[in-house]
Automatic annotation (TrEMBL):
Record's subcellular location: Nucleus
Magnesium in keyword set: yes
Cofactor(s), by name: Mg(2+)
Role, per record: ATP dependent phosphorylation of adenosine and other related nucleoside analogs to monophosphate derivatives.
Free-text comment on the cofactor: Binds 3 Mg(2+) ions per subunit.
Entry's family note: Belongs to the carbohydrate kinase PfkB family.
Gene Ontology molecular function terms on file: adenosine kinase activity; ATP binding
Species whose genome carries this gene: Betta splendens
CDD domains tied to this protein: adenosine_kinase
Name of the protein in question: Adenosine kinase
Coarse class of the protein's main subcellular location: nucleus
Length: 334
């Protein structure tokens, strides 16, 4: 469950970033000062449109890694009744994801400007319709809740904490009470900073926590962990209070080209990523989403965690060679 967005991707220049005070590598929510950005990026640069939204990307990648059967992943989110919404529906169907959108006509379908410079990407999300998801209008409906009951693994990116905390808590509690896996992503430094109360309401239900090194540092700072060491942060996040004691929390933190860190109980392991020549990197947008998608594909097939990390590294390595969160027809992951 998450924010379905249409990604508007373009290679931009430093002047463009500076004009809208964007950091080269960041994720933010659009403010009034970014209104023109969405028009300017389309006018000034060569743009590509891709179906996006962090959670939806991850579900697609998991489905792609698994291949058969189709529709192993179900996705909930809110869109508008418009052209962008139709594109998202088509793209989800093409990816064999079982998308059940809450459609409303007060707000247009959300979009995300992916401003690419070199191997960095600055994401500016205009949530619009995505922000209109309502528990009682969609999640609580019997036919939709049945799909949640059917799921073995639930994944929601931290981005959704700004939209519908009550929906997340309902799913998280259901997973915890039924000993299912509930997975969450820190998603962005601003989630750890400005939505930390919401984040910490969900944290006791989290079985698998994902994040990257910048998110981990922001999280550690807000939680007074008094360390910027990724391994130490993973260890401390793993030890935070947890409701379902039948499962140990697993914390998985990526560090770009550096080793991925995984904390289980009091043990921290590191896993080297697949090497890639920098000139083969086309676009790092979607790398984190792909990592999660690969990991989830292993989880639902009940593979050992080390295998899940391997699948995650493979998926991320494929995605960064391509524009947007797109993939070839079939994976060649062994």
């Amino acid at each position: 469950m998450g924010n379905p967005l249409l990604d508007i991707c373009a290679v931009v220049d430093k002047d463009f970033l500076d004009k809208y005070s964007l950091k080269p590598n960041d994720q933010i929510l659009a403010e009034d000062k970014h209104k023109e950005l969405f028009e300017e990026i389309v006018k000034k640069f060569k743009v590509e449109y891709h179906a996006g939204g962090a959670t939806q990307n991850s579900v697609k990648i998991a489905q792609w890694m698994i291949q058969e059967p189709h529709k192993v992943g179900t996705f909930f989110g809110c869109i508008g009744k418009d052209k962008f919404g139709e594109i998202l529906k088509t793209k989800a169907a093409e990816a064999h994801v079982d998308a059940h959108y809450y459609e409303q006509d007060e707000e247009p379908t959300g979009s995300c400007a992916a401003c690419i410079t070199g191997d960095n990407r600055s994401l500016v999300a205009n949530l619009a319709a995505a922000n209109c998801y309502k528990k009682e209008k969609h999640l609580d409906l019997e036919e939709n809740w049945k799909l949640v009951e059917k799921a073995k693994v639930c994944y929601i990116a931290g981005f959704f904490l700004t939209v519908s905390l009550e929906s997340m808590l309902k799913v998280a509690k259901h997973a915890s009470e039924n000993n299912k896996l509930f997975c969450l992503n820190l998603s962005a430094p601003f989630i750890c900073q400005f939505f930390k109360d919401n984040l910490m309401q969900v944290m006791p239900y989290v079985d698998v926590l994902f994040g990257n090194e910048t998110e981990a540092v922001a999280f550690a700072k807000e939680q007074d962990f008094e360390t910027e060491d990724t391994q130490e942060i993973a260890r401390k996040a793993q030890a935070l209070p947890k409701v379902n004691s039948k499962r140990q929390r697993v914390v998985v933190l990526t560090q770009g080209k550096d080793d991925t860190v995984m904390a289980i109980s009091d043990k921290v392991e590191t896993f080297p990523v697949l090497t890639i020549d920098p000139k083969d990197i086309v676009d790092t947008n979607g790398a984190g989403d792909a990592f999660v998608g690969g990991f989830l594909s292993g989880l639902v097939q009940e593979k050992p965690l080390s295998e899940c990390v391997k699948a995650a590294h493979y998926a991320a390595n494929v995605i960064i060679r391509r524009a947007g969160c797109t993939f070839p027809e079939k994976p060649d992951f062994k």
